[in-house]
Amino acid sequence: MLYSAVIEYALNLCLYYKGIIFMKVLVPIKRVVDYNVKVRAKSDESGVDLANVKMAINPFCEIAVEEAVRLQEEGKASEVIAVSIGTEASQEQLRTALALGADKAILVQTEVEVEPLGVAKLLKAVVEKENPDLIILGKQAIDDDANQTGQMLAALLNYPQGTFASEIELKDGGIEVTREVDGGLQTVSLSLPAIVTTDLRLNEPRYASLPNIMKAKKKPLDVITTEDLNVDVMPRLNTLKVSPPPERASGVIVETVDELVDKLKNEAKVIT
Amino acid sequence: MSILIIAEHDNTELKSATLNVVSAAQKIGEEIDLLIAGLDCRSVAEEATSLEGISKVLLADKPAYENFLAENVGSLVAQMGKDYSHILAPATTNGKNYLPRAAALLDVSQISDVSSVVSEDTFERPIYAGNCIATVQSKDPIKVLTIRTTGFDACGETGGQASIEEVSINEDLEISKFIKEELAESDRPELTAADVVISGGRGMQNGENFSLLEGIADKLGAAIGASRAAVDSGFVPNDMQVGQTGKIVAPNLYIAVGISGAIQHLAGMKDSKVIVAINKDEEAPIFQVADYGLVADLFEALPELENKI
Ligand SMILES: Cc1cc2nc3c(=O)[nH]c(=O)nc-3n(C[C@H](O)[C@H](O)[C@H](O)COP(=O)(O)OP(=O)(O)OC[C@H]3O[C@@H](n4cnc5c(N)ncnc54)[C@H](O)[C@@H]3O)c2cc1C
Ligand SMILES: Nc1ncnc2c1ncn2[C@@H]1O[C@H](COP(=O)(O)O)[C@@H](O)[C@H]1O
Asked: Of B29, B48, B37, B49, nearest to B10 (Cα)?
């Protein structure tokens, strides 16, 4: 076991000196409402009612952490750093990322709800300090459903991007990304450093084990501020209101296929 | 007010999503230009000149844009878009890929998945898997929007008399390369544009059983969709996934078969006009959004349904 690990390490070192692998990976993660929660608009329409709601790592970010950790386990990554932008509470999600296998974590602490452009600017500042070779983000945060941050970060850094990834492969000093697109699958090849955003099929994240949760408590978690990074994160958008979606009239249960066909033909008139 | 729309096409023909975006643009203002970036795509530009409401078709027919790589297209859109008040693209995987890049290069935010135009600077969009609708106002000088096609009708395809103007930019950033594409071949209508959609979930048990949906789809001229569970289990390919993180559909008739009705699935189909659910579990949440629910074993109900329609 130990012996093979040593060999693998030596092998990686060789590859590293040939400029092939051994990357530093940065994984931005967001604290969001747990995906099982059905959130509601506040009755005065001033926002979303998040009182006492269960919070979690954004599922796509969990997939991003898993992918980074697997790269490390395969000896292709040297270090995995998780970073989050949010309130002090986001430390909880960063600890989860550490328990899943990240080596260190950075919290950019702010009380402002930073929009994707602001997040991308803060991440750019972190990238300039940490110099990762690969940055893996979720394709979308399930609260704002924006699907922007990875692409914006890539633009600000002038890095290539492989969005909606269902497979990644390190190859010839770059990375090949298979992307889930509307028509099927697309493969692109990117030079490093690069940005990848995860889709659901990239992997199935593991659960953090109890010993790893304990170990995570001792891993480094640095807290910095948006001022430290000297980035302006003033929101550009003004949310005027948040309202419930239009309600559907309640339907009926039909007893038989005959009745269903009759209703579709004669009541709903959607088939002939 | 001047609006730049980025057309969706495959270098051969214009995709219908573009027509919905034109309608959205018409709700914002009257001066609308359409950018066609691709290679050997002049025929697409010619087709687009007759679209209702377009002033000018800008044609960037260049090698750098052949495969719509986000790096190159994003940079082109940022350069072309800087003199416009609005830049719009459909919220397809393609639009979602390059438009945020262009927005960041212009140092403006993007409003994703706009489902309704309130005014020239205020828009509605779903958040939290469509459980809430946010009304957002943009303070940016350029409003960059991806348009949820189900929120807008298609514009007219005839009557327009736009001119074609060539774009000379041909900039390959050379940081990414297209390798290959495996696109699903299908004679059926496109999922996002079909009048009828029939989707299968985990209850279908395997990929072969999707043939039970095909007979019905043939008779109804329907597209076939799926839940995430059906895709993850390998029954069908990813491009069939309907939902928060898949495709958004709003057909006249949506038939959900063996699908429980998780929030994330509902997010992709609950704006359909008529919803039918077939599920053997009467407690399944899908029945809460169904106009017509049939509590039955799908393996009995589907052959009978195919016979009777
Ligand atoms: C970040 C994230 C994003 C997601 N995005 C999406 C998305 O875009 N789209 C999506 O669909 N899901 C999405 N999901 C997954 C979603 O939460 C559900 O897990 C998924 O929709 C369940 O699929 P299903 O209804 O097919 O399976 P299940 O929930 O397992 O339901 C199967 C149903 O089939 C019924 N059934 C079984 N056998 C029969 C039979 N013989 N006859 C009749 N009925 C039968 C059962 O009663 C059951 O109701 C997402 C989840 C996450 C965390
Ligand atoms: N506040 C944040 N902190 C860290 N990462 C974030 C934050 N917001 C967004 N991201 C990253 O960007 C991805 C896409 O988010 P979004 O563009 O908001 O849909 C997420 O999955 C995260 O990887």
From this structure: B37
How far is it, in rounded angstroms, from Cα B184 to Cα A105? 41
Summarised one tens digit per residue, pLDDT across range A118-161 is 999 999 999 999 999 999 999 999 999 999 999 999 999 999 99
Contacts of A261 in chain B (CB under 8 A): 305, 308-309
* Pairwise CA distance, residues B251 & B272, whole Å: 5
B156: exposed, middle or buried (Cβ count in 10 Å: 0-12, 13-18, 19+): middle
- Sorted by sequence, the CB contacts under 8 Å of residue A117 that are 6+ apart come out as A148, A152, A236, B103, B104, B107, B108, B109, B110
> How far are the Cα atoms of A209, A233, B5, B9 from residue B67, in angstroms, in the given order?
44, 34, 18, 11
* Average pLDDT over every residue of A218-230: 96
Six-digit token pair at A248? Answer: 């559907």
Which residues have C-beta within 8 Å of that of residue A18, sequence separation ≥ 6? none
Task: Write down the pLDDT at residue A269.
Answer: 96
Q: Does A176 touch chain B (CB under 8 A)?
A: yes
Q: Please give the distance, rounded to the nearest whole angstrom, from the Cα atom of residue A58 to the centre of ligand 2.
A: 8
Q: Looking at residues B54-82, what average pLDDT do you find? A: 98
pLDDT value for A6 = 67
Please give the model's pTM, rounded to 2 decimal places. Answer: 0.95
> CA B238 to CA A178: how far, in whole Å?
12
Count of all residues that appear for chain B in the document: 309
Q: How far is the CA of B57 from the centre of ligand 1 (A)?
A: 43
For A109, residues 6+ apart whose C-beta sits below 8 A from its C-beta are A86, A87, A88, A90, A223, A224, A225
H/E element, B135: strand B132-138
Whole-angstrom CA distances from A140 to A50, A114, B246 are 19, 15, 11
The conformational region for residue A45 under phi > 0 = left, psi -120 to 50 = alpha, else beta, is: left
Q: Do B176 and A161 contact (CB within 8 A), yes or no?
A: yes
pLDDT tens across B244-257, in order?
A: 999 999 999 999 99
**pLDDT confidence of residue A189:** 98
Partner B contacted by A115 (CB < 8 A): yes
| A160/B176 CB distance under 8 A | yes
Q: With contact defined as beta carbons under 8 Å apart, do B115 and B170 qualify?
A: no
How crowded is the C-beta side of A102, counted as CA atoms within 13 Å? 28
pLDDT attached to residue A115: 97
Instruction: Indicate the burial class of A206 (C-beta count within 10 angstroms; 0-12, 13-18, 19 or more).
Output: middle
Cα of A85 from ligand 2 centre, angstroms: 8
